[in-house]
Structures
1.
Amino acid sequence: MKESMMAESSSVEVLVHNIDEPDWLLRAGDFARRVLERLEYHSWDFSILFCDDAHIRELNSTYRNKDSATDVLSFPQIDDPSEIPESGTFFAGDIVISLDTLAENAAYFSVSEEEELKRLIIHGILHLGGWDHSDNSPEQEMLRLQERILAELSKEKIY
């Protein structure tokens, strides 16, 4: 399936691979649009692909030389955040989220799958915007911003 949503002049393409299409698919794109608005990222085009562990493991192995599944991968189209244009359409890149690992993480961290889905969408968008973190410790600036946005958008529903 291929769906697009327009937000101001931003476009979020939402796709699935190796999984059944969830009924909340378009709402995930809507949530991504809300994140863009919150970050004041305008005229962005990017995709979110939801998949299984087998597919994300293959991508992780191919592009990161890590032969394991992961929860989210981001493939930004720029290396330097200063390259993001001030105006015009910005082709930000692609985000891939494994729903298998998402479910495992939610259980491990005792959070709802919806909360974890929101966290991964935010995380992926931040990486597309040039944010990075050296580890997963909560004092990382990117992760603090991620959790702040998650709290601010807590009333948004995907599931």
2.
Amino acid sequence: MSVNDFNLKISKDVAGKTLQFKSVNEIQEWLQLERNQYQWISEIGRNSSRNIWSHVSSQFEMAFVQVDAIRRHTAQLQPFEANLVALNSWFASAYLKKNLILTTSSEFKAVTDLKVESLIKAAVFLGHLCSVKNIFQHGIETSEMIEGSFEYFQYIKGISKKDLIAEKYSLEELKKEWDQHLQEYIETENKLKLEFETTKTNFEQYFLETQKKTSEHLQMHTEELDELKKTYDQFMSLKAPVDYWTLKRKEHAKKVKLFRNWVLFLGFFGGGSLLAAIHYVFSN
């Protein structure tokens, strides 16, 4: 399997959104962008935030390992189907089991909104969303950590204002996605209409040209047939008298030959009779 055969599609049931990657570069860029959206957690400088960042970065690291393996196998012209299977499993583990959340999801939008109030509060909120264990293993370093947990419990119960904001954001994103699909459909439809009209015009032009050439062809051959008929008629009009007089010549020649034979016969017979009579007269 070559790099051109790379094709990875993740269903909406797994990640909350349909994802498709047609090259190893495409999935690597996507992973880097996703991880960068979490990068702010590493800059907080708290033990709890380091714990959360360690969880997030380790999740992405597992995916990058498979991507690097695909690059090596591609360079060595070796198959990488097993790595694609591993990436599929990674998406299921990361997003279906909620070890990560998509940065385009409504949950991540709620985290982004909470960052405006407090980074540590947003980090704890995100840690709960991503199923990070032992968020408080180093103790409660600040009251904002408790507030972040409280925001999370309100959010999952659907009583948080941020939940409503996030759902509104989710609907807006869905609308954008459908608007984009609609625009693509309209563009495809217009392209097909243009191709159809072009094909129709070309066909009509071809039909007219063919009709014209056919008419010219028929007219030319009709004229040739007329000339041939005329020549044939002239030939037959001349052939009839020639045949008639040829037949007459043969009949006359036959009669002349018969007449000549009779003349010779009569001359020979008459001459012999005359000589016999003269001989008889003179001898008596």
3.
Amino acid sequence: MAQKEVVTINKSFIEELFERGNYDEPFFPDKKLAGEFIDRLFHFLFIPFKGKYDSKEELETEYENLKNSFSSLLFDLIPKEYTVKDHTRTFFFAIPGIYRLLLKDAAAIARYDPASVSVDEVFVAYPGFYATAVYRLAHQLYRQKVKVLPRLLSEHAHSRTGIDIHPGALIGESFFIDHGTGIVIGESTVIGDHVKIYQGVTLGALNVAKEDAKMKRHPTIENNVIIYSGATVLGGDTVIGHDSIIGGNVWLTNAVAPYSVVYQKSEVIVRDPKTGAEPIGFLI
């Protein structure tokens, strides 16, 4: 290809990128700053700060600094009828209630996980708690109809923990994620109180058609349900009744009555040592 043609193609491509990225009203916040803000807020709320702040006044100053950092993320994101000041006030007004919910989540983990030493250990070391904390904060922004930022926060937690919780999901009190890697909780999922979920669980949609985006596509999990690792529960009409247990690797697309136990039955076949025959004939 001649050098002149290469230059022309490159120029055309640059023009295409410029037009594609030249929005009249930019609406993407800085992804790095969003992650830094949510980590800073998480540390402020849950990581011991003895020696870092020597007085309540210093703690209050940091809280005001967090508000300023949050406000800087909101420019060009918000609906025209709302202001940055309104959103900041609403979000930080909600934080005390979110904080108390998260204390219940941490207490549930410390109570039910035999490996847990203390609630403080949950704060500093448990990825499930971190993912839940970021979800609850992002969910508040989702309720405020802030564009893009709730997803950036939830994807930041996803990248750090392997736990994917859409900020639109509704999750009740004392939520317990154990281990957590590979968990997926979809946008219209509804989860009740005192629910325990283990690694690899998917609460997903049966129908992924774009025209059904506004419908309830994800399941409802009622109070006091345990869902063990690898289970997949799909569909907006799928309701797992309260006080049920869903075993590992179960695949569910239909409702389950309260107090049910659902499990996948395994079959054990012992090889014949005399013949050496394999019970399953396959090659890898």
4.
Amino acid sequence: MNLDKSIEYLKGVGPVRADTLKKEAGIFVYDDLLNYFPFRYVDKSKVNKVYEVNNDAVYYQLKGRIVSFTEVGEKNKKRLVAQFEDDSGRLELVWFKGYKYILPALVCGNEYFVFGKPTYFNGRFNFTHPEVEAVANREIISRSPLQGIYSSGEKLAAKGL
């Protein structure tokens, strides 16, 4: 196999995805892809309750449902705020950037896994730009609890790359 071959010739990539990989991740050829390693790993085997969130230096994974979401602010100061709850409490999920990609995937009442690092703001914890995955999707796709974290732009994540 020629490792210097352009990434666009890899099955399932094509010119449009290749352009995104080149711009966002610096992946130009097969060899770049083979040497694109995570910068850290996170263990998602533990699921916490909302009431357990008490430290903004630790990553948490929660399982619960989104009960409402609203777009707040105007023009370039707009953000998406979702109310997330489990049987132990409620907190906010907030997206300042890229929320237009997130919004279509959120359905009130559906269950989600939320993963992220909380921030303490206005006397309570919230999650800013958390990872959100539908519970139904995780049950369909068997995943390892140890997951690699790659440095990538929002465009890669939004396109599922």
